[in-house]
Write a structure and sequence with these properties.
- The structure is a single chain.
- The protein is an alpha/beta fold.
- It has two domains: 123 residues, Udp-n-acetylmuramoylalanyl-d-glutamate--2,6- Diaminopimelate Ligase, Chain: A, domain 1; 135 residues, Udp-n-acetylmuramoylalanyl-d-glutamate--2,6- Diaminopimelate Ligase, Chain: A, domain 1, CATH 3.40.1390.
- Helices cover 30% and strands 21% of the residues.
- The protein has nine helices and 13 strands.
- Strands 5-8-10-11-12-9 form a six-stranded mixed sheet, sandwiched between helices.
- Strand 11, helix 8 and strand 12 form a beta-alpha-beta unit.
- Helix 2 runs parallel beside helix 3.
- The longest helix is centred in the last third of the chain and has 19 residues.
């Protein structure tokens, strides 16, 4: 497949027009390579991911996260420089579909909404409108809110979440706020979505699932709109789990759409290792690479 055609195919699901203004979605490292026979897909452009792509014989790397959000010289002996060195040494083009993928309300970013069967969906924060190659226009945005087909008790809902998330690395979560007796309306945002918690509350969500809450963001959520109090909670499942599964599904989608193109998904690695602190000796994993 021609590299230009493959990029067009990627951008049908991750339209650049939907990306946030501060983002760096798109080509990260250019290459004159015209024909792409094997695409490697992963969450992060880490050096070990590029090495794995090279080992698989891939011609191009597609990641969700960009190589960098700001231009910088490779003036330090760090992972950024190692990734650049590997890509350039093997003449491997690198494309990142970051917020352009996050903001497509019909794409892989809403995979958990699909699994939960949410209906009556809307985005939490609009980002723009994209025109697809077939002429259709889609209004995009970050996050999703919708109604469950039933109204489970929190305990039942958390069991379902455990089934869906344990396979993609979420073994623990932090609960913030107050749970209702029944969960009817759910909001979600992949990656780092603490800033959209109030939007989730305003759109009637009973619980908001995302990652990367900080301490003061959690306090703000607990104190939200005390003039009209109602139960509202957030479940912080970490940055990695929702986006790892999103990226895996993106790879599967490209595999289905691109006849003759070999697509390999390279599993990512959550930099956080769950650790329970006890007064007893605990075995700690020192494994770094996936």
């Amino acid at each position: 497949m021609q590299q230009s055609r493959l990029i067009s195919l990627i951008e049908e699901t991750a339209p650049p027009a939907l990306a946030a203004p501060w983002d760096k979605s798109g080509i990260q490292v250019a290459s004159p390579r015209t024909e792409i026979l094997h695409l490697a897909v992963s969450l992060d452009p880490a050096p070990d991911v590029v090495s794995a792509a090279v080992g698989l014989g891939a011609d191009m790397l597609l990641t969700h996260h960009p190589l960098s959000l700001s231009a910088r010289f490779p003036d330090r002996l760090d992972g950024y420089r190692r990734t650049l060195a590997l890509l350039l040494a093997h003449d491997m083009p690198h494309y990142a579909a970051h917020t352009s993928l996050d903001a497509n309300p019909f794409g892989p970013s809403v995979w958990l909404s699909d699994e939960l069967g949410l209906t009556g969906r809307s985005v939490l924060e609009a980002t723009g409108v994209a025109r697809l190659p077939d002429g259709r226009e889609i209004a995009g945005g970050f996050g999703c809110v919708g109604d469950l087909p039933d109204a489970p008790a929190p305990e039942v809902f958390f069991m379902k979440m455990g089934e869906l998330l344990s396979s993609c690395g979420a073994f623990r979560a932090n609960l913030i706020g107050t749970l209702p007796e029944r969960i009817r309306r759910v909001a979600l945002c992949t990656g780092s979505g603490a800033s959209l918690a109030e939007a989730a509350f305003r759109q009637g969500a009973d619980i908001y699932i995302t990652g990367d809450f900080k301490y003061h963001s959690a306090l703000d959520l607990e104190w939200i709109d005390t003039s009209t109090p109602r139960p509202f909670a957030a479940l912080d499942v970490g940055h990695f789990s929702l986006e790892e599964e999103m990226t895996r599904r993106f790879a599967s989608l490209i595999r289905e759409q691109a006849d003759g193109l070999r697509v390999s998904f390279i599993p990512g690695r959550d930099p956080f290792t769950p650790l329970t602190l006890t007064s007893e000796p605990t075995e700690v994993s020192r494994e770094y690479a996936h």
